Amino acid sequence: MGRPLLERLARTALVLLGASLLLFALTLAIPGNPAQVLLGPRATPEAISAFTHAMGLDQPLPVRLGRFLGHLLSGDLGTDVVSGRPVRDMVLEVLPATLLLAAAAIGLAVALGVPLGCYAATHPGGVIDQALAIVSVSVIAVPSFVVALLLLLVFSAGLHWLPVIGGGASGLLLPALSLALGWIGYIARLLRASLLEVLGADHVRTLDAYGVPRRRIVLRFALRLAAVPVLAVLGVGIGRLLGGAVLVEIVFARPGLGTLVFDAIGNRDYPVVQGSVLVVVVMFTLANLAVDLLLLRLDPRAT
Amino acid sequence: MHLRRRTLLGFGAAALACGRARAEPQALMLAIARDIQGALDPTTRLSSLEANILRAVCPGLIAFRPGSFAWQPMLANSIHLESPTAIAFELRPELTFQEGFGPLTAEDVKFSFERFRTPGPDGKLPTYAADWAALDHVEVSGPQTGRILLKWPAPMLWTTVLPDASGCIVSRRALEQGAYRTDRQPVRVIGAGPYRFASWLPNRAVVLEANPDWPSEKPAFPRLVLRPVRDTRTAELALGANEIQFAGIDPQDLAAVGKSPSTRAEKHDSINMVWLGMNVAAKPLDDIRVRQAIRAAIDVEEVIEGGWGGTVSRANAAIAPGLLGYWPDAPARPRDLAAAKRLLGQANAGSLRLRLTLLNEPAYQNAAAVIQAELAEAAIQLDLDVRDAGAFWSAGSDEALQLALQRFGGKADPAFNLQWFTAAEIGEWNWQRWRDPAFDLLLHEAASIDDDAVRARLTIEAQSRMDAAAAFVWLTHEVHAYAYRDWLRPAVCPNGDDMSLDLFARA
CA nearest B297: which of B349, B225, B366? Predict the structure, then answer.
């Protein structure tokens, strides 16, 4: 496993470097003078000049790039233009909330999607299997913020079961469900198809012939193999999930990276946008690395 | 443990009881559209949110009366105009700064006001320096007494400065120890007002608690929680669920929100300014006939119907009805497509292609779409340049800017509202780059005279000069709408942005 592991680590490092370069290019893409845009229309020429110098915007491009990458390596994400606070502190303040939301959404999707997928695969053509096919297709296509608003209307405004903007576990349930709902059906459908294929394999039929209980075959042997494509899709899906979290955080008035980026874009606060997006990219890349390593462990042939 | 039906019912009843208990809030929760940004410092505050907090924690000599721009004494025992350029004040004797920063004296008043005219380390005057442009100095005559001496009479001080955040009294010692800044945690805001700044958890909540040392009537609520809720629909739902008790709402949702039990929803005409501005320094808009043609081609009623769905009234000039200097006879020009085509012909501008810069918000986008369609009928092709707030608000420095849909928040004083259109503001807030020395002079006179009748006449004259320039198509003064629980009596100023948080009371 040593060589594949090294390969994946190297690939991860390359992806992170590429993402950093793209984010650096973002400051070059700001139309006009970035210092003027950042400081706003009331900035004096002296303030613009001081800011340009402090940010190193008067340096040659390679020097700026080197400085940018150097700061990143030391964990310095820059300074918030509006409040003057370090972006790293701002990101670290809200990161746990976003991680919790993402983890809860993935946990919910897996906790509901896997049993449904197993049931549908072991009872093909049954009522649940058919219902799953219809519901999952219709829910997958709906954006998570629309799901969020519908859930709010039904469970908070209509039934008063859950808070609209509350914190704690009850306040986490609806946002997590909004993100997870599409994935529950997706995971279930994917697992069903994969499981049906595995259950038709020779070694499974042999186990059947030996009288191993069906439940044990599915949970102990088949699920491990069938989970491989689901995991691969889940790895890529984490990016979509983090993207959806931005709007869900706004709809449920939750703190998080999403609201941080939302406010920063409105305030032309590019250091915060840059820092937050970089952290999201790192999270996404590391999640994919973890999925890759897990796949390697589940199926050593996947080198 | 054996779970039986009766046990489960018991748990259910307990949960229901908890739910009911939650219906009686321990603190007054208010939705705010965004989180605190920038400093909580009166001289550099960013917007009305920070100003509202500052006025509750470190108020000034006078304050707004509930729901109005009229004033009442706050930290001042007495305050009066001694002469056109001298305001004498006496502080209440028993006032102390919170967190042990000592008694509040006339020296603190002097420090708080004069720092508006003191350049920072970068040589730059504070953001709100213009509010105190008339200030010469503050003369301290005793621990609690002093005089605010002015370079010229400044009636605006009584409506938009002294009772607002530029009149807030801060503690010099606290400021030197890093208070009023938001780049350090915990954030400290030290004042002598009815509330103390308890905490700020970024993106979660701002908490104010009643100041136990406040010597006058205690605020009605021991604790205020300001919760950022960026989505208006979410705020409306949270209000219906009694998770918050006050929120700004979309005027178009007024009827629906008002139907919720125990909820009241109100809509009031505002005093803000929304208009289509034309850059008179950019070709072909430097030709007044082209500007007049654009004005004639636009049906303002249709534009505001498209943008604001019939919830707002039409504006014909900058100053809103009810304010000093309102121009009741301002021309309400009906659409005249024939005149527009004729004027374009005279200007040899047969087929034009122009760019309209606007905010990425539904109302402005819809209004812009109507303008685009109307100008197309006059053979003017309009490209829409839709920008997010950050990029939009820096557009004024672009000399090539052509048309812009703009909105400025209004205050009680006409001189404050019109100051953005002077030549000094070109490149900053005067995006029309319109330069009229006579207008500047009228405005300066109107800002320096105590006679309201004369001020009104001068302000109307200034607006008529704006009208003659044809660089502005006034659209609306907007409305503001908010909703609250029926046991609450909010204290919102007529512009809808300024609130007296300490005066929110039980109905």
Answer: B349
